């Protein structure tokens, strides 16, 4: 999909609906939708975003899905949401207050949907949203009810110090934990 600069700018502040259902194994949580995601209506839609290749390389999906196929994740026990719902060109346009409010709303969503794992793709966003300044990549001590939390590297192409292979390894650790609980793939 190609969008003009005007179409992308018109997508600012738009919401991208969650891909979610009750009882998922993993609810992936991005920071917030980018303008390409808001314009297309699909999560992680920017061509340089590595979410879809990493998800496949980590073994979560049988093949690399395209953003337009995001609803197929539900059949694999996976979903997608965001810490902050509104679309921006860059995550640095968000305020600390938006992150904290997003964390509060996310906790409510998790209480309602009860996924086994909440996987926040962006440890910095997790730190601010949940006021956990020392959080590191990996499983967290904090839980939301019965839901465990895992902080993942942000798959944005701007996060260049994490390679696809290194991200796939970390996402794979989450996959092993999520699917070790109760079997199934």
Automatic annotation (TrEMBL):
Assigned EC number: 3.2.2.28
EC category: hydrolase
Entry annotated with the keyword Hydrolase: yes
Organism: Streptomyces caniferus
Lyase recorded as keyword: no
GO molecular function: pyrimidine-specific mismatch base pair DNA N-glycosylase activity; uracil DNA N-glycosylase activity
Domain Uracil-DNA glycosylase-like residue range list: 17-180
Protein name: G/U mismatch-specific DNA glycosylase
Coiled coil: none
A Pfam family of this chain: UDG
SUPFAM superfamilies: Uracil-DNA glycosylase-like
Transmembrane segments: none
Keywords assigned: DNA damage, DNA repair, Glycosidase, Hydrolase
GO aspect biological process, one term: base-excision repair, AP site formation
